[in-house]
Amino acid sequence: MISLRHLPITYRALFSSFLMLIGVGYLMALTYMYVVVIEPHQQMGLGVVAGISDEYHGMPNGQTLLEAALLGPMADKISVPDRTNVLQWIHNGANAADYAQVEPIFVKDCTSCHMANSKSIPPLTSFTALQNVTGADTGTSLSDLAKVSHIHLFGVSIIFLLTGAIFALSETPVWFRVCLVVIPYLSIVMDIGSWWFTKYIDPGLFAYVVIAGGACMGLALAGQILIALWEMWIEPLKKVGNGIGANDPGKKLGSQSEDVRAAQLAASKG
């Protein structure tokens, strides 16, 4: 069987370029997830698990984002009377007609951080901006969840088909190769399936499964890439180094001298 260690350099260069680009792409995906999902929730005082739960399941009991923030991590950023007035406005439907009564509160307590051009946290500078955080948050919609799921199932499966095919040419033990090409597919099902379970069954439990599935997927991809690169470039260099050492004239002369001394010792004993 053809192995990575014995591929022509053209194929090694091609496979290596592909694997490294896939690795960089995965890091960009993690960066995007951090900026869009994790960082905004951290700024609201929520952890990673709570952020994933809110992303897919939505706020508990159909709370709005603004209501959850005022009752949770942002409670100490606003006075009790002002918070009560804002919550009353939300419960009354957050109407434009009553916005003038709470606008000064947002200007005084909120807009210094929640500015109009804010990216990682929602802006609170106008009634239009507030409409994005005063509706009941039910998490990712069914249509969006189905769309993202099928894109990831098709796209990520093809990526692992290609990286797995390259890694399968390594000279690692067969059982290890089988495990490392199967684990990513199990992780995909685990990760994406948990999006649905987080939304519809138990957000507290399956948010952890989302993290575990993503971690397994990332580790498997890293293993496939790093092992394949090692076998394509480092192992051949090690063999070249060993070959040079074996052909070293100094080592050969030392070996011949030892053979002569052993022959002389045997002759003297005879």
Which helices and strands occur, and which strands form pairs?
Elements lengths: L8 H35 L4 H9 L8 H7 L8 H12 L7 H11 L17 H4 L11 H26 L6 H27 L2 H44 L2 H21 L1
Q: How is this structure best described in words?
A:
- The chain is mainly alpha-helical and 270 residues long.
- It folds into two domains: 137 residues; 72 residues, no CATH class.
- Helix content is 73%, strand content 0%.
- It is built from ten helices and no strands.
- Helix 7 runs parallel beside helix 9 and helix 8 packs antiparallel against helix 9.
- The two termini are 52 Å apart.
- 21% of the residues are buried.
- The model has no long low-confidence stretch (mean pLDDT 86).
Keywords:
270 residues, mainly alpha, 2 domains, 73% helix, elongated
Entry summary:
The mean pLDDT is about 85.
